């Protein structure tokens, strides 16, 4: 049993990536080209992978070094206000562009589809990155969305320059196939923790080791071959941890009524990082991630991350 109320972070946590506006619409199903459909408005939130992770960590009383770009327009202003509300100290500001925004279409099946307008969160520079403190033994979270595009190279080089005492926690997402082979190999040589859903896992296995077949067998081979740690997320089937020289360990999902799956992966990342920062093993931390994700998917939108007290109550009821 994890003593959630007495988790004490001993490692710094840095969160790098995006915050932007989420406009949520509920639809029966996605429209075909040229169709005219009706939708129900589900609200407007501040989201983005990194912001979702940072917000969830802050609510769990895990201090965050905030490496999220804030733009110079209306979305940037809204994001700054939301950060301050969540006790996240604004740190880096883009001088010329506003943050991006997206429309999230949520179908009756609870599956979600995003249409995104990019903003300053895609425009990194050495000067902006130099403003982010990098204390010894830090855990550094980065989303794959910020590692692709014409302005991604400064962030790529910043990641590769981090010293070996740091732990890179990477949620590469569906952008795996857009990363250059050279950069992807260099990144894996840093021996990061990789978190992937079943589709992303298949993409990575195919690109690096040309492994096909059973996902867990391929992931276990990958972990041993590259001295990496993998968290393979299989939705309602739970998450499997693959570590070098250890047998794969599966942590079951917690059963809840799903409202939608927005921020499910991000909240899982936050739970895992909270555990790692507090000295838990990767398997224990993954169980914590499963709990946080279960609470988030039981609520509408990206803003459902629990406080530490709420998480403790959830755990007691399982």
Automatic annotation (TrEMBL):
<dbReference type="GO" id="GO:0005829">
    <property type="term" value="C:cytosol"/>
</dbReference>
<protein>
    <submittedName>
        <fullName>2-dehydro-3-deoxygluconokinase</fullName>
    </submittedName>
</protein>
<feature type="domain" description="Carbohydrate kinase PfkB">
    <location>
        <begin position="13"/>
        <end position="304"/>
    </location>
</feature>
<keyword id="KW-0808">Transferase</keyword>
<dbReference type="InterPro" id="IPR002173">
    <property type="entry name" value="Carboh/pur_kinase_PfkB_CS"/>
</dbReference>
<dbReference type="Pfam" id="PF00294">
    <property type="entry name" value="PfkB"/>
</dbReference>
<keyword id="KW-0418">Kinase</keyword>
<dbReference type="InterPro" id="IPR029056">
    <property type="entry name" value="Ribokinase-like"/>
</dbReference>
<dbReference type="GO" id="GO:0016301">
    <property type="term" value="F:kinase activity"/>
</dbReference>
<dbReference type="InterPro" id="IPR011611">
    <property type="entry name" value="PfkB_dom"/>
</dbReference>
